[in-house]
User: What shape does this take?
Amino acid sequence: MTVIKVIADSVCDVPPEVAARLDITLVPAVITIGDKSYLDDGKEITRETFFDLLPTLPQLPKTSACPLGLSRDLIAAQAARADHLILITAPARLSSIYNNFRLAAEEVAAGRYTLLDSGQVTMGAGFQVILAAEMAAAGAGMDEIAAAINRLHPRTHVYAALNTLENIYKSGRVGWVSAVAGRLLQIKPLVELSEGDVKSLDNIRTFKRAIDRLIEIGLSHGRLDRLAVLHTNNPEAAAQVRAAMAPVYPPQDALIVNVNPALGVHVGAKGVGLALVNHSA
Amino acid sequence: MTEQTSNSSISFMLDGQAYKQLLLAGMFWLEQHYQIVNQLNVFPVPDGDTGINMLLTMQSAYGEIAELDEVHVGRIARRFARGAVNGSRGNSGVILSQIWRGFAEALREQETLDATALANACQTGTNFAYDAAPKPPREGTILTVVREVSERVQDLVQNEHNLGAVFSAMVVQANDTLQRTPDMLPILKEAGVVDSGGQGLTYIFEGMLRQIRGESLETELEQAAASVTDRKPRLQVMSAAEFGHPYDVQLLLTGKNLDVDRIRAAIESMGDSAIVTSDGDALIKIHVHVYDPGRPISYAAEQGIVGDVVVENMYEQYLANLGSEAPEQATLGPTVELAPDDVAVIAVAPGEGLARVFYEQGAARIVSGGQTMNPSTEEIYNAILDLPVHKVILLPNNANVIMAAQQAVRKCKEKQVAVVASKTIPQGIAAMLVYANSRLHQDQRENLDRLAAGMTSSLSQVISGEVTTAVRSVDMDGVRASAGQIIGLLEDKLVVAGDNLPQLVHDLVGKLDTDECELVTLYYGNNVTARDAEALAETLQAAYESLTFEVLSGGQPHYFYLLSAE
Assistant: This one.
């Protein structure tokens, strides 16, 4: 049997316990706060600490792909124990990790890897990673896995209720935000994240109503195959949303994920979101 | 094996240690300028990180050779490349590390570096960089800079062997290419910047050139500063409101037995960035940012003798530094662009500030009016006819206007018109948000009935409050007020009366179910100053931490404040 191992970048947000269970290697991104850098590996800095810190920082932290040397070493270690590697990354147009993985894998696993641009952020990508690892463990072949990921992609949606406009405004990457931020009225936007774009679904005056609307949108998808409740240090809101999603997905199976800093720096602290996969007919 | 004449800019051959010095100088020169590189950001915000990513890559690279006594150029180049790859950060850092890998590949067997070897290194470095870049490679970036430099060097070394001259040509070419990057990449042109990665590489080559010429590697600060202003990306101009306290006030206070803690507390309450330092109890230095520079000065004059007063208007300075005129006050008028099939909204509002809020959320027309000056059916009817659309929603925003609006609908046979029966301004604004959201979704902006129903259901989302003067004595809902007193109402019920305006607003907010609310908006009338309204909101914010207070100019007559809670 061909042994296939899955490697993903930490921006895919697969929870560490899930990664351990499914033998997924997570390559940490680098977070730079002021002139200090940390690996997003849960050890050098935890996500809780990061989001506690975020609102107090005068300048937005920066995030980048990990050094090529580190991704190469992590990929080499997996290459030594597998016949083939699947590498899944955040959208190539948003992050240099795709190119980083390509260079590293060319060096240490040439001809023995498949590199996939997830086209999604946070658990939108994470679901692809988990699916790949589940199928690899069950003995599926590379073509089968790639085809399954292709089918998963269009059924995946990521939504978020932002608790602040400040971060996404400061980050300057989303065109419509400056128009909203420049308005007289306070707005808590509800957004959809897809293919690296941030699309405004609704402009809402209070966070409480933004959560209600998030749940409404989640429930409108009907029965789900997978669900993760995302948050940026707002476990209370995440728990509330998970319970409210019970009609379409069993709460005990829904993952609760504190989002990675690379995305979180734009989303801002105390936000809450949903990553879901529609039921396949 | 360094062969140099007395003129340090003429050298034909460098050994490994001399090459190491070149690399160090390249890193050092980038270090002097990396913040400039960071600022070359295509996004209009100061968070670029290309400079720091390239610098960290260079530092990691140099870290590998810092302790090496190696004189073999090829071995220095190989270790340097390894360090660069291991520490590479960001796209620009990765590409830079690949340039050094190419150098290492080309220089592998070179004991020394000469012009031909340098040309080969540039060539291989370029190839490695293109291979490593995301596909398809983008021109107008660091790639173009390294490629054109390499091409220039290939030509030059046919008959030029002096490394000083070669590096000099590299820097000239790099700068020339760099200045053309905005012509190759439209986003650079829009942002008014050159490519950041290309600029970083140019600094590295410049540092190497300076080393080979024996020139100083200390930055000429003025020159660096000039180049920052030349290339500073266009930032969004802050409005006076966003800027906050405009006046910077500094003064010295002398006196006897000055209580520095008490003075500090008083100064801090006046604005922000307060710094109050004392030299014993006889001399206190005060610095604070405020709206009214008179306040800290008058206060200090009451405490002792005031000297060395400096008042500066920081907002004026900010605008002057931007080199721009003060931003024009947004003109009052519709912001919405309507297609003939779209639904348009006509809102009734008293006061310019409120009109501005309605226009901003997409109202097509404001009919002036409200409590004491109800617009006529005719005025509303004419506004409906005047709009270039067939479907119109009316927001009366006042209980006394609803009937006139309904009458206008009956009168109007030409168009489809619906009334969303908003009784207050806050209700009207809640309904307006629903309208604004419908315009985000193409499929919803044309359905009059569904839109009107959605807007109507939002009316109950807000609690409306009003603060005004009692025109006669009343005893209502268990509250007694005499004529001329200030009264506060919630949802049309008299809940508080008093003589002190700020205190009364506090009491009014106290009557809200604060567990159910998150956001309180105060629209101040034409009888309240912006400063008083801001000051009130600050004390409210301190008293009710779980709520967010928002202050907007309403400009309405008679009502000190209109309040919305949601």
Remarks:
- Chain B touches chain A through 44 residues (CB under 8 Å).
- The CA atoms of residues 38 and 49 of chain B lie 5 Å apart.
- Residues 1-8, 221-236, 323-329 of chain B have pLDDT under 50 and may be disordered.
- Chain B has four domains: 3-231, 240-322, 343-461, 463-565.
